[in-house]
Amino acid sequence: MEQFQVEIQVLQSLKHPNIIHIEDVFLSESKICMVTEYMGGGELFDYVVDRGTLSEVEASTIVRQITSAVAYLHARGIIHRDLKPENLMLTSKSRGASVKIIDFGLAKLLDADDKTASFLGTRGYLAPEMLQRQAYSMSVDMWALGIIVYVLLCGCLPFDDDGGKIANEKAARAKFGLRFPRWASGLSESAKDLLRNLLEVDSTNRFTAEQALAHPWVTGARTPNKYLKSPNYLRSIKQEKVSQKMNGRMPHANGNSVEVCNGNGPTISVRRQSR
């Protein structure tokens, strides 16, 4: 419950067009209810599954918004630690809808030069330094952003998502050697360059949010308007997600259960208070 209170405090302090806005918080004897703005477009994950891969221009527009929000967070000493397409939502189903980061349940306040060591997040999006059980910095968010960009462009995850411990950097480089699927042969060199800099095993050489935001592919200066032809492996992942849902309840990353009510109004997240 303490972590949920941190999530509320973090969200209440933020004001950015690409970060979910918290409308109100209600306290009762047994529950804390958080009301956020309504996001009618659903998860970015579902959008990509339904569309298949996107054009580079559309993906660039989405990534620009996410990166802007991450830069905003990092400038304020906030590390998200659970960036993934499921935690990115669209304001509407119309083309060109805004994308917003949600779910700050694993967020942490961190000074620019500080590190933390808690092992948490989502399999498939964990940075190499986390899998080596090393102390890590805000750069883990940039690794996760790289995974998101890859998913948007290639329609699949770039690496094995077993989440197992890695012994050292040599083993990490062997596991995370960046490769592109055969159907991504038409991917622009600008996009590949961005991915190489985001999915850099050495966190000290990995792009910061500001560097990513200035990259020509992200700004749109070198972004071709073409689609990639790829099989949609994400559909099987979605089917697995759906099979795990039980009565509208999903496990939260920190172990708490979350009820999410989506109607024609705001989204309401509910946590039961521990006694």
UniProtKB/TrEMBL annotation:
Polar residues: which segments have biased composition? 254-275
Keyword annotations for this protein?
ATP-binding, Kinase, Nucleotide-binding, Transferase
Q: Name one Pfam family in it.
A: Pkinase
Region described as Disordered: 251-275
InterPro entries for this protein: Kinase-like_dom_sf (IPR011009), Prot_kinase_dom (IPR000719), Ser/Thr_kinase_AS (IPR008271)
Reply yes or no: does the keyword Ribonucleoprotein apply: no
**What is a GO molecular function of this protein?**
ATP binding
Does Kinase count among this protein's keywords?
A: yes
Q: Which residues form the Protein kinase domain?
A: 1-218
* The protein's name in its UniProt record: CAMK/CAMK1 protein kinase, variant 10
